[in-house]
Amino acid sequence: MGVKEKPHIIDIIGRKRLQWYGHVKRMQEERLTKLIIEWIPGEIRKRGRPRKTWMEGVRAAMTTRHLETDQWLNRKEWCLSSGRRRQLY
For residue 72, which of 22, 23, 42, 52 is within the disulfide window of CB 3.0 to 4.6 Å? Predict the structure, then answer.
């Protein structure tokens, strides 16, 4: 039997981020969590290099897994393609 490698921490974070994104996108429109995630602040950023936003991380995880933006509508397909499968460690 071969030894299974543990997933890299960056892969785990990307998978969990996509799971939460799909969960929130399927919520009702008036839910506070959905309103906060879709809210864009109108403030001026501080000087220096701008930090990455949470949505930029979601978009990066979606591009690495070749996911479409509206794929979250089908829950089963989203779970399978975002990496949420039963894993034995």
Answer: 22
